[in-house]
């Protein structure tokens, strides 16, 4: 019997631990549901001056802007808070979702005329398994587990799920690890 989706399991991203190895991208691309495309992306913060990298993954917003602006109702959020990639039979390739996401996550795959993004390996997590990226991350930058576990492992950090973009507040399912005592992240230009 397959395990059921565990609401107590959460996804955590610790940007300070990312070493830019791209293992998460490779593992994601191996997922059959992605068509050999990675739905997670590694970016250099300031390549001219640093080797610091950052992970870009869907934050699975409580009120997803990508779904709200989709004229074809192709993007949905399920009862577990997972925002799914565009339904192929509905997506019209308009890119509204790409422009609306405050985190810059959805990508339009031009060859398919389709929006694609991370769905938190729903095929795996709904069966009680970890997302592919979290299973291969050697530095622990990506972690899928219980909040109590991450708090014990990262005693100097707190998980944050509230982001401020100017006057807009965005709450997410995915956590970003921030210095102890942090309750939100203010994003400025």
Describe the model:
The strands form three sheets. The protein has a five-stranded mixed sheet with strand order 6-1-8-7-9. Strands 2-3 form a two-stranded antiparallel ribbon. A two-stranded antiparallel sheet has the order 4-5. The chain is built from six helices and nine strands, in the order E-H-E-E-H-H-E-E-H-H-E-H-E-E-E. It is 17% helix and 25% strand. A hairpin with an 8-residue loop joins strand 2 (41-44) and strand 3 (53-56). It is of the alpha/beta class.
Write out key terms for the chains shown.
two-stranded antiparallel sheet, 9 strands, alpha/beta, 189 residues
Compact summary:
It is built from six helices and nine strands.
Question: How does the SSE layout of this entry go?
Answer:
Blueprint: E1 9-13, H1 23-30, E2 41-44, E3 53-56, H2 65-68, H3 96-100, E4 107-109, E5 114-116, H4 122-125, H5 132-136, E6 142-146, H6 147-153, E7 157-165, E8 168-179, E9 185-187
Parallel strand pairs: 1-8, 7-9
Antiparallel strand pairs: 1-6, 2-3, 4-5, 7-8
